[in-house]
Amino acid sequence: MRHSRNWTLGATTAVLVAAFTAPTLAQDAIRIIGHRSPPNEYYTDAMQKALPEGRVNVELMPIDKELELASITMSSKSDAIDVLYLTDSSLRRFAANGWLEPLDELWEKYKDEYNLDDFPQSVIDAVSYDGHIYSMPVLTNTELFFYRKDLFDEAGMPAPKTMDDYENAAAHFDSGRMSGTIMSLKPVDAALNETHWYLNAVGDGWFDDEWRPIFNQEAGVAAINRMKEMSQYAPRGFTSHANDESTINLQQGLAAMGLQWFTRAAAMDDPEQSRVVGKIDWVAPPGGGARLANDGFAISAFSSGDKEEMFRMLAEATSVESMTKGAEFSMPPRLSVLQNEELAKKYRWYPAALAALEGGKAFPAIADFNDVGEIVTRHVLRAVTGEVEVQAALDQAAKETEDLLASRGYYNN
Q1: How many helices (H) and strands (E) does the chain have?
Q2: Which residues pair with 369 in a beta bridge?
Q3: Given Cys at both, which of 46, 116, 135, 398 links 298, Cβ 3.0 to 4.6 Å?
């Protein structure tokens, strides 16, 4: 069954559209919006280089703002956006709403020229919805466990393998000058990632086989209670921290460890930004179950530009040569690049990433998961900050989730 959500523009969202409107561009300019991150900076730069100077305009921003802008713009069927970065979960929602251009014909037409069969089927499946390809994959991303190996070695402690190990280490290293762990609970994306890890590592996940919530059952309550316990070792303001803030806390030696994306690993060894060069190491997240993602760039169904030209721009930017160079910033989804032994030697976080891939889990594969995430993270934050008891918060989240999914046709009764 295909589920969709139709968005309606009201007065408030119309104002937001006006506020987000880009400066006047050349008539044939391609407008790309994306999530501000090291790999997206690299790949959007490659897109700009694929076409003559001035043809491509790129705007990078925090992911929540990007998805808000994309949702508002595309729900109005505006052609103000041509190409947009989407996570695997947001892609399903956008495709279900009819906002994205299917790429199947262009994929088939150019698969030999751009060696598109080099993408494994699992990656193609991740950027597809309802049998159609909707996105050009740019990265396979996984969350790693970053930790101060120098401090662990001094204390005679091994890297954490279990959530008990993690909590004990956080308590040991927590001090007035350094937090025991980072914790990224800014709504929605960052909080959703952290919650996903706890619900898998300690709990039994999100749903049963019929998409009924199970996160408010005993194991889920234990998971969020563990998160609440761990929050005492997190930096101040952790409920407003996302990837950027947590990366800085690790780089500046303000936190000893924590969950963070593969794409942030290189920044730890950047001497221009980091005070902990050579001191951070990586392992698979304790307990397993941290998020896996296959993200990419899609073409708006409402773009008035040349969509074939946009597809070729994307294909050029994600060539084998480009992805080999981009491997510093993200795990490339091309088989030929993943199997490159020289890269594994060059980037010391690759072994941890491969281990994390084995134990990681993608978000539940439903088009409405982002909306579920908005509900659940809101109540998880209430629980972690002590506003309400954990069980009561998760019960309310489960009720609202079930009501939402029932209204979208997920249940037969």
Answers
A1: 19, 10
A2: none
A3: 135
Q: What is the pLDDT of residues 33-80, one digit of tens each?
A: 999 988 999 999 999 999 999 999 999 999 889 999 999 999 999 999
214 shares its domain with 348 = no
The verdict on whether omega for the bond into residue 188 sits within 30 degrees of 0, i.e. cis, is yes
Report the C-alpha gap between 307 and 296 in whole angstroms: 16
Task: Name the stretches of the chain with pLDDT < 70.
Answer: 1-27, 413
Query: Structural domain of residue 190, as residue ranges?
Result: 142-291+365-407
Q: What does the block give as tokens for 294?
A: 């296959």
Residue 243 three-state SS: helix
- Phi then psi dihedrals of residue 87, to 5 deg: -75, 170
Amino acid letter, 243: N
Q: What is the pLDDT of residue 26?
A: 55
Domain count, the chain: 2
Gap between the Cα atoms of 407 and 211, Å rounded: 13
CATH code assigned at 225: 3.40.190.10
Helix (H) or strand (E) holding 61: strand 56-61
Query: Is the Cα torsion angle 370, 372, 378, 384 positive or negative in sign?
Result: negative
CA-to-CA dists, residue 153 to 58, 81, 156, 159, angstroms:
43, 50, 5, 9
**What are the backbone dihedrals phi and psi of residue 54, each rounded to the nearest 5 degrees, phi first?**
90, -10
> Cα dist. 203→199, 218, 287, 289 in Å?
4, 8, 10, 10
Which candidate, 122, 107, 131, 117, places its Cα nearest to that of 314? 107
Same domain, yes or no, for 199 and 58?
A: no
Same domain for 136 and 61:
yes
pLDDT single digits (tens) 177-187: 999 999 999 99
Q: Can you tell me the distance from the alpha carbon of 21 to that of 9, in angstroms, rounded to the nearest whole number?
A: 15
